[in-house]
Amino acid sequence: MTMYPHSGVLPxxxxxxxxxxxxxxxxxxxxxxxxxxxxxxxxSTTPLPPWPSVRKVPPPKPxxxxxxxxxLGQPLAVPPATAPSPALPAGQPAALGNVLDNAAVxxxxxxxxxxYHTPGLAAQRSAFTTNAELAQWLRDLAAGPLPAGTQAALLxxxxxxxxxxxHALVLTRAPGTDPNSLAESQRxxxxxxxxxxxxxxxxxxxxxxxxxELLRGPxxxxxxxxxxxxxxxxxxxxxxxxxxxxxxxxxLNRDHLLLRTPEARALAALVRDYRPLLxxxxxxxxxxxxYLEKLNALPRYDALLQYATTANMPEFxxxxxxxxxxxxxVKALQAQGLSSDWYHTPATSPAGALRMAMGRALPDxxxxxxxxKNAVSLVVATRGISLGHRHIxxxxxxxxTALTNALRSTAERADKLEQVREFVDRDTTALACHGQxxxxxxxxxxxxxxxxxxxxxxxxxxxxxxxxSALQLRTLQSRPRPCGYWLAPSATMAxxxxxxxxxxxxxxxxxxxxxxxxFRAADAAASTQPDARAxxxxxxxxxxxxxxxxxxxxxxxxxxxxxxxxxPGTPVSYTSHGLIESLSDTARVMSTPSLIFEEME
Length: 601
Known about the structure:
Elements: E1 3-5, H1 20-24, H2 37-41, H3 96-100, H4 103-106, H5 131-143, E2 151-159, E3 165-172, H6 179-184, E4 189-194, H7 202-216, E5 227-231, H8 236-241, H9 262-274, E6 278-286, H10 289-295, E7 298-299, E8 303-307, H11 315-335, E9 340-342, E10 345-348, E11 354-357, H12 366-371, E12 376-385, H13 392-412, H14 414-430, E13 436-453, E14 460-480, E15 484-487, H15 492-500, E16 506-508, E17 512-521, E18 536-545, E19 550-553, H16 559-566, E20 586-589, E21 596-599
Helix pairs in contact: 5-7, 7-13, 11-13
């Protein structure tokens, strides 16, 4: 057990570069946000790559088929055996069954010029790849034969709630497949996640295709530049039941901060250990759903895309997501004749007005939680929920096209991505005790047109609907940034979750005093209402902290995850959800503590 005093910097294995804080908060903090990257880079010991403000983009190529060697892709020789039903008469109210088989709508989504092959994509197959078939597919790939120099390992991330295995396949040219070997390879690691929602099978089927292409197909050369980890089915219980949520009813993609499910904890441990620079989350969105119910229209787009958009996202991670991933991905989809838009769903405001809402700004989904881990993090959602096997080749092709483009973008920018990660890690570490921190952010209302389909004729229909943009967030709550957070000895569950997220937590070895802002509830309801923001106030005082209590410092790279978890009164905080039982069990530490700590094992 190592003991050491805490004097403003973390122990050597976690410390930031000496002098970085004073430099960053002298000149750098005074710089306007949009100054040139070169000026920002001058404030850090880690230089950033040049970021061109004007780029020449070649004209898009005409749509063409991707050539995928057998058995991954083969030219289609015949049209689908089951012909869609005739178009509905104009003006007739649309029913779900009729809409999904409407010939006029189906004509807008023709099959691609290739056919992909997995167990669940076999001809005349009524079920998607089963959990047993998925496991066997991955075992066969890992067992070889493998190209010279390529390593493949099948990891058991742990059982699901229903005792189904959760598999991850590690592909690399490093000497080994453990986290240290991948880190020492100096290649960026990419994590692909599929089927967090059990009723969204196309992502899982696409990741099986991607795994084979990376080992035995045209994507194999990418492993000379990147490492890839694939989790084709994060929610095997939901996949088996054909339901969205995990077995206990929790939405896995709303559990990446609280970590209430073993599935979320398995993914958190994987990300903590392998520290991917890019995380891609493959989903599907409803092919009818609220569009049909609320607008009597159908979604038009093959793919909906969004990168991490939450409070305290590092500016340069967002720039990388936008310019190095989102923009090239849109062009790659266009080149295949596939359409895309920002991720959005129809929503109703508290006043009852219809709006289009982009993906949530809360830090509890995989997209945002991984963004706060300083990774580029994107969701790719294809049109698919309720379609069954309809258009499955096109849905898989959309995923394969988008994910392949992201892998190529990573390989092309490997060095620049690592520079961005190093800069952001140092910059976030240097922010402790300084300025303001945003506790909660919300979308900005805009006016924007989007294109939908008429469910009867299949024709484009322009919708002018108010739009809640997550690309421009408004600050809903902010407070002075603390130096860290104190937690009572009883907060062991919170400590366990924080360490799974990759945060450093220190145990107080000897009693001492600290200056804190304690949380106080203005009324009794505040402790039982997760969203009772106005009911919590701060009280400045000096307190004595006992040995065995905990300290979560903010001078560490993942500090903003700690803020998301430990500030009470926000919808997804640990206090709001009972991981910290009482407001008196935590406090904001407002000056560098002079305490003796022992690091958690």
